[in-house]
Design the sequence.
C-alpha cells in the first residue's frame, strides 16, 4: 500500500467523459489499497476565458478579485470528479485551497506556498477517503484566495506530496512524459526515461511548460519522486530523480524555447564607469528581472550600446525607469523589441564536455540565424534570436546534438 498524489491537467479533465476516465484511474488505485490524493486543474481553456473576463470587466482590476475569478475553474472540476467517484461507489470529497488549508504569501496572481496543513487530509486518507484537491489556489495571510501563477496545479500537487509525505507524485498530462524538446514542435523528439531535478529545473524555467518551475524546486528540496506521464495511456512516463540515480548522462538532454522575454536596447550611452549601475540599479529597485545582458563598444570608444532582456510584461515599466535616468545616462534612444525568442540547450553532461557552445553557434550560423544575445550557466546555454526562426532553430539544434528519434 502506498500514499500517492495524482495530478491531472486541463486536457485530462476537459469534459465529463474525460473526468470519468480520470475517476476510473483513481478508483483503480484506491481499489488496489493505495491512499489517493488527487489534484486537478481547470478544464482546458477555462482559465484563459476567466482571465479574459477579468480584463473585460475592468482594465486595472483588484488583484484579489482577479484571484477569486481565476481560481474558479478548479472549483468546478474537483466537485465534478468527487461526484463521479461517489457515483462509482468510491468514498471521496473535494477540497478547495482554503479548506485544506494551502497557506501562501499575499502575492496575488503568482503566490508562493508557505505551508500546507495536511493533518485532516492525512486522517481522511487513512480512513480510506479519496481527497480531491483544487490545484492552483491557496489562501493568503489575510484570508483572501490566491493563485499560484499559470501552470500552478503542478506546484500544488508536488507541495501536497511533500506535506503528505507521499511515496509518489504522478503528474498526468497530454504527452507521455518529458521529451528532448516540445513534441508539438519537434516531431522527432524522444521521451526521456529519467531526468535530474537540476535539468528539469532548467528545462522548466527556460520554457518547457510540462512542469511549472516552482514545482520542480519543491520536488528537489523535499526529494519528492515526481513522474510525468500520460493520462490517456498506461505507458511509463519520465521519472525526475537525483543525479546519483543516473548512470550515464547525455551531453545535452533537451532543447527549449521561450517567448516570455523582450529585448531592450539603449543606444549610445557614455562608455565610463558607473553606467551599468545607473541602468540596472533602478530596474532592480523596481523589481524588474533582467536576464541576458550584452554591451557593445562603439568605434569611437566614447559610447556603447547596452542590450538586455526583461519579461514581456515588464517592458513598459523598464522604459519608464530608463527615461527617469536619462540625464545620468545621456543616451541617444531606447528600442524595445518583443519579436524575439530565447532558445536553450540544457544538460548536466555539459560540465565535463567542451564544444557544446561551438556546436550551437555553428548550427545556427549554418541556417543563417543571427544571435542577438547569449547567456550561460553550468548546465545551460541560451541564445536570443528572431522569433521567426524559433522552429527552425529548435529542430536544427535537436538534430545537431543527436537527439532525433530514429
Ligand atoms: P497540463 O494541462 O496537463 O498541465 P500543459 O499544457 O501545462 O499540460 O503541459 C504539457 C505540454 O507541455 C505538452 O502538451 C507539450 O506541448 C508542452 N511541452 C513543452 N516542452 C515539453 C517537453 N520538453 N516535454 C514534454 N512536453 C513539453
Ligand atoms: N488552471 C491553471 C492554468 O491554466 C493552473 C494549471 O492548469 O496548472 O494555468
Ligand atoms: Mg500545466
Sequence:
Amino acid at each position: 500500500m502506498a500514499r500517492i498524489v495524482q495530478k491531472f491537467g486541463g486536457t485530462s479533465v476537459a469534459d465529463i467523459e474525460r473526468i470519468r476516465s480520470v475517476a476510473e484511474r483513481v478508483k483503480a488505485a484506491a481499489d488496489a489499497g493505495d491512499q489517493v490524493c488527487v489534484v486537478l486543474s481547470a478544464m482546458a481553456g477555462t482559465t484563459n476565458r476567466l482571465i479574459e473576463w477579468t480584463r473585460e470587466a475592468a482594465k486595472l482590476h483588484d488583484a484579489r478579485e482577479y484571484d477569486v475569478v481565476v481560481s474558479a475553474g478548479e472549483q468546478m472540476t474537483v466537485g465534478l470528479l468527487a461526484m463521479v467517484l461517489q457515483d462509482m461507489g468510491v468514498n471521496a470529497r473535494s477540497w478547495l485551497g482554503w479548506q485544506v488549508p494551502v497557506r501562501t504569501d499575499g502575492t496575488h496572481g503568482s503566490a508562493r506556498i508557505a505551508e500546507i496543513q495536511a493533518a485532516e487530509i492525512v486522517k481522511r486518507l487513512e480512513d480510506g477517503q479519496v481527497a480531491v484537491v483544487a490545484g492552483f489556489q491557496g489562501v493568503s495571510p489575510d484570508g483572501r484566495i490566491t493563485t499560484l501563477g499559470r501552470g500552478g496545479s503542478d506546484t500544488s500537487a508536488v507541495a501536497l506530496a511533500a506535506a503528505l509525505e507521499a511515496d509518489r507524485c504522478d503528474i498526468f498530462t497530454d504527452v507521455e512524459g518529458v521529451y528532448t524538446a516540445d513534441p508539438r514542435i519537434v516531431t522527432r523528439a524522444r521521451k526521456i526515461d529519467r531526468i535530474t531535478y537540476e535539468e528539469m529545473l532548467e528545462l522548466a524555467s527556460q520554457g518547457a511548460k510540462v512542469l511549472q518551475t516552482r514545482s520542480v524546486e519543491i520536488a528537489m528540496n523535499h526529494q519528492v519522486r515526481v513522474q510525468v506521464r500520460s493520462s490517456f495511456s498506461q505507458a511509463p512516463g519520465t521519472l525526475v530523480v537525483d543525479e546519483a540515480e543516473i548512470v550515464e548522462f547525455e551531453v545535452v538532454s533537451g532543447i527549449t524555447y521561450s517567448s516570455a522575454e523582450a529585448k531592450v536596447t539603449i543606444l549610445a550611452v557614455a562608455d565610463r564607469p558607473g553606467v551599468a549601475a545607473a541602468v540596472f540599479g533602478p530596474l532592480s529597485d523596481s523589481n524588474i528581472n533582467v536576464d541576458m545582458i550584452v554591451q557593445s563598444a562603439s568605434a569611437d570608444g566614447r559610447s556603447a550600446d547596452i542590450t538586455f532582456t526583461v519579461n514581456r510584461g515588464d517592458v513598459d515599466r523598464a522604459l519608464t525607469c530608463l527615461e527617469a535616468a536619462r540625464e545620468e545616462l545621456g543616451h541617444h534612444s531606447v528600442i524595445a523589441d518583443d519579436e524575439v525568442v530565447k532558445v536553450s540547450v540544457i544538460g548536466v553532461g555539459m560540465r565535463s564536455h567542451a564544444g557544446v557552445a561551438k556546436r550551437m553557434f555553428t548550427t545556427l550560423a549554418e541556417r543563417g540565424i543571427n544571435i542577438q544575445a547569449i547567456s550561460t550557466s553550468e548546465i545551460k546555454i541560451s541564445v536570443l534570436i528572431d522569433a521567426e526562426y524559433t522552429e527552425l532553430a529548435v529542430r536544427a539544434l535537436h538534430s545537431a546534438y543527436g537527439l532525433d528519434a530514429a
About this structure: The longest helix spans residues 16-31. Residues 9, 151, 154 surround magnesium ion (ligand 3) (CB under 6 Å). Residues 3-174 form a domain with the Carbamate kinase fold (CATH 3.40.1160.10). The mean pLDDT is 95.
